[in-house]
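Please fill in the sequence for the structure shown.

STRUCTURE ENCODING:
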């Protein structure tokens, strides 16, 4: 009522101007609040994550924040590959059917559009812009003279460089946000008397705030209990040694199983995969997905023996699953390297057979000294060599899709159907299903985080050979956000010991940076050391893929620029530069540690002074 009539309350020109000024100030403040709310609403999934944090704690919310951050990274990678590689080739490159590499072989045409073939990313999917082998090796394509081989190479290298930059930048930002410790002085008093926001007017927001305050009290109680806990040190050490022994046995068994199925797959490849069924063709991918689904649960059971603080237990769990996934991934890469070597040996035989085929094709059909045009052959009938780059891309795409389907099936069966069973059969069962077996499931933070990290590692490793991988991962992350948010709120219960997540998320980032480094090693090795296939891909006809850079410098830049680049790439100059950079990083790291310790000491002094004033 006052806001409605406050303009008429004042008498005189000065009072009216003052009332108008007050009214405009209030409207401006209201506009600022609405604009801040609008900016918050524009942040993808912000309200969903806040709701999850209020009911399940900051540790579960940190996973969804990490997933959203990964979604942004993959959107950039998708934009690079889609805008600079796939679209130019589709619009300006030679059409389908114009070249053997862009045509389904005659022997595969009958099944090229079958669902099973397309689901296996063969047939028409294999001979499309989705994979490396489709791209032509012309230096320029279209009326724009777009340099496709150079763009393909620079996008692959630039994606890795951008990923390194954004991960290290985020780690530096998180380190700056971490103030050097939590202020736990009068923790419960502050939570009791200052937690409620009296500006809340929405009932749903009030419910979320109530749940958030309750969860924060649970987190604080766990922190206080852990700080006062007394334990039998000898029994604790024995149980932790036993837990580590069991974890090592699990890792060794998983590694042996992967090694066994990889050897079987190599035997199947030698005998011809067309002689086997679906299971033999997808045995490695399926076994890796099943190990990634069941081993984290086994590690979770083992970790109950150790009696660590929940935050420390989470890090041990992450480390063990990280070792499991890393062993599985590199076993898979070793198997791919063996298969690449087989393809390279097969390529030599194919080159010889193609020479004989060309000789038989033209022998006796064209008279001597004839100026007649050569015989036109349908590209579908031309024999072609094994494109090992496309084979590698297909394996990574299949593994990514298999992992995605395993994740969705786990959510639907392990969370939803389990929750439905507990909810409706609890009334007629012999024991209490909610508090006994099987009970409602808790959200598996460690397994989901490591699944995200290793899935991203496969994207970084395989996107050079399958430009469609970033698009598939964007779809996977987008659907995972909605499906997992729904599963958490509808099917899961808060953890029994809700703990506060660390303010610095650098533990996730450190693992992501490590897997990024390990993912680039196989890709760099294939680019530098293995010759590309001779009849497919943008680098066919070259001895090494990186020669596209020297070719560009030779044809498109002045001669002096090529000399400068040659001097700059000299190992005698690069090695001292790397050494200087390492020493600089060491110095800056030592300086930052000293500053952090000084900040922590100052913070302790301020806390002690404040306590004395009280």
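FILLED IN BY: designer on duty
SEQUENCE:
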């Amino acid at each position: 009522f006052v806001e409605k009539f406050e303009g008429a309350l004042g008498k005189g020109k000065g009072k009216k101007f003052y009332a108008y000024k007050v009214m405009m100030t209030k409207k401006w403040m209201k506009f600022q609040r609405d604009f801040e709310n609008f900016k918050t609403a524009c942040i993808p999934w912000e309200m969903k994550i806040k709701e999850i944090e209020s009911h399940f704690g900051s540790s579960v919310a940190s996973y969804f924040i990490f997933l959203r951050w990964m979604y942004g990274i993959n959107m950039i990678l998708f934009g690079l590959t889609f805008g600079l590689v796939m679209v130019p080739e589709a619009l300006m490159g030679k059409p389908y059917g114009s070249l053997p590499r862009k045509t389904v072989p005659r022997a595969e045409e009958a099944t090229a559009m079958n669902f099973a073939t397309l689901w296996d990313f063969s047939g028409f999917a294999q001979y499309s812009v989705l994979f490396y082998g489709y791209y032509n090796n012309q230096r320029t394509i279209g009326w724009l003279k777009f340099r496709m081989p150079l763009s393909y190479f620079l996008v692959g290298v630039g994606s890795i460089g951008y990923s390194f930059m954004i991960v290290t930048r985020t780690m530096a930002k998180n380190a700056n946000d971490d103030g050097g410790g939590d202020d736990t002085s009068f923790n419960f008093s502050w939570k009791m008397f200052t937690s409620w926001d009296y500006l809340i007017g929405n009932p749903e927001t009030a419910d979320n705030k109530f749940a958030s305050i309750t969860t924060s009290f649970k987190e604080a109680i766990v922190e206080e209990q852990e700080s006062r806990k007394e334990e039998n040190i000898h029994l604790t050490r024995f149980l932790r040694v036993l837990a580590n022994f069991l974890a090592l046995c699990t890792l060794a068994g998983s590694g042996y199983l992967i090694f066994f199925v990889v050897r079987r797959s190599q035997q199947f490849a030698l005998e011809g995969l067309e002689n086997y069924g679906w299971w033999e063709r997808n045995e490695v991918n399926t076994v890796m997905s099943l190990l990634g689904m069941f081993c984290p649960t086994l590690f979770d059971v083992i970790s109950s023996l150790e009696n660590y603080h929940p935050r420390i237990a989470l890090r041990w769990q992450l480390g063990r699953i990280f070792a499991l996934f890393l062993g599985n991934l590199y076993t898979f890469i070793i198997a791919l390297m063996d298969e690449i070597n087989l393809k390279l040996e097969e390529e030599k035989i194919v080159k010889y057979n193609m020479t004989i085929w060309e000789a038989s094709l033209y022998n006796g059909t064209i008279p001597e000294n004839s100026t007649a045009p050569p015989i036109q052959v349908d590209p579908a009938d031309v024999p072609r060599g094994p494109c090992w780059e496309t084979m590698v891309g297909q394996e990574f795409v299949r593994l990514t899709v298999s992992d995605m389907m395993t994740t969705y099936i786990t959510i639907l069966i392990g969370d939803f159907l389990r929750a439905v069973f507990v909810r409706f059969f609890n009334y007629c069962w012999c024991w209490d299903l909610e508090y006994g077996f099987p009970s409602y499931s808790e959200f598996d933070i460690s397994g989901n985080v490591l699944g995200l990290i290793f899935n991203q590692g496969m994207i970084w490793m395989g996107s050079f050979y399958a430009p469609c991988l970033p698009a598939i991962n964007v779809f996977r992350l987008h659907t995972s956000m909605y499906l997992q948010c729904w599963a958490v709120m509808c099917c899961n219960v808060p953890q029994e010991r809700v703990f506060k997540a660390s303010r610095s998320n650098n533990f996730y980032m450190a693992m992501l940076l490590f897997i990024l480094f390990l993912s680039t090693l196989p890709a760099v090795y294939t680019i530098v050391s293995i010759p590309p296939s001779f009849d497919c891909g943008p680098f066919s006809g070259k001895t090494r893929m990186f020669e596209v850079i020297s070719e560009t410098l030779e044809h498109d830049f002045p001669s002096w620029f090529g000399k400068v680049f040659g001097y700059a790439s000299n190992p005698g100059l690069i090695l001292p530069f790397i050494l200087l950079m390492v020493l600089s990083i060491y110095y800056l790291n030592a300086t930052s540690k000293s500053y952090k310790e000084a900040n922590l000491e100052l913070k302790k002094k301020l806390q002690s002074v404040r306590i004395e004033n009280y």
